[in-house]
Specification:
The protein is an all-alpha fold. It contains 21 helices and 2 strands. The protein has a two-stranded antiparallel sheet. It starts with a helix and ends with a helix.
Length: about 500
Amino acid sequence: MADLAQLERALIKADAAGDTAAATAFAGEIRRMRRTAMQPTPGMNPTADMSGMDKFRAGMGKAFVDVGRGAGQVLGMGDRASIDESRKLDAPLMNTGAGMAGNIAGNVAAYAPLALVPGANTVVGAGLTGAAVGATQPVGEADSRLKNTAIGAGVGALAQYGGNKLTGHIQRKATEKAAALASQKAKNAMRDATLKEAQAAGYKVPRSLYDPSFASNRLESLAGKAATKQQAAAMNQDITNSLAKQALGVPDDSVLSISTLEGIRKAASKPYQEIAAMSPQAKLDLEALKQARNDAQGWFNAYNRSASPADLAKAKEFRSAAEQLEKTLESYAVAAKRPDLLPALADARKQIAKIYTVQRALNDATGDVSAPVIGRLFERGKPLSDGLETVGKFRSAFPQVSQAGAKIPAPGVSKSEALAGALLGATGAAVTGNPVGLAAAALPLASHPARALALSKALQKVPNYAPGVTNKLLQNIDPETSALLARLLAAPAIAGATQ
């Protein structure tokens, strides 16, 4: 059998002699031998030694070559049989992910100029652009250029229509989410302001009560939902005590008791003592004021226990009497031409009012100040100042973690934890077949560090209602850009559908 070189020489001689029939036969045989030589050995993968980047570059190059082949066919150059052969040769490359990715990128790059044609951003224009892409795809023996043109027109128009609809939907959803976050921020503004003030003071609030998320809820589930609240409440009792001492101006390491408060009240009463020294009547009125305050305090304490309207009415009656006596004592200072005593009386009155508020909330057996009592005063509009106002607002906003200390169960004390440990230990030993499996009994102990983490400073943050970066980008998608991307991505889809 003649080799390729012999056939080429024979072709040259036939052409020189004008033997058209022989020249055609030699040319056909030469093409057949060349195609046969290009066929890979059965079982051999020509891409086996290629890197991922090599495959990507080869796939990208194939896209440009196919565009050239298709355009050549439109101009009457190239035959369909060679297209079929090239597809067989390219099949191993196109069966790789890198090769396919490169081919898609190549088609996008090759047809990118068509996306910039004026009017191509409409559905009709995108359909015409797609028709041009389909028409210039290379066709084999069994392919139809008319069919490819129709497919290209349909895919191009559909991509543009779908891209426009999808962009509108994405923007609408992103805008709705941003609006929902803004509405939620406005709705929670007062609660979040209270939370921020309380957290600055040291109060702890589990995230499930104000800003739940999948991660924080799972953490509190591991920690024990009830136990986490109990531990937060126990920690918060210390904060309430500290804020009460801060409001009274006493050291944080001091112990609050009735006798302590009496000493503070006596020191605060010096301006009143000066008034009492002005006349016997002033002295009697001061004693009457003390008695009215004590009576009011006693009836308020009774009301704290009974919630009886009659007790509350008595307390208000004595408080009103005390307020009238306050004005009488001020008049003595004015008559004695001691106006300088009026500011001092106001400061003393404010300090004494705080002392009575703390005394009303004080559990003298434990030294704890009751946040629920101060919270009720806040809700009824009683003027509170300094740290006492923070206590009142916190109790009103987060009652689940601001109970009175004597009523808070010890966190983490539960039969279920012991039973779960025993069950897990027994199961672990049974599954593993050795005593090492008993270590599973320690798993419930993870609830303790989980509670510490749930109440840690890292997780004690005021909610952030700002839309995420992704949501902002989606909300501000440029319709022209999205339409351009839709047309560019239609090119590889058309190429794949027509091949």
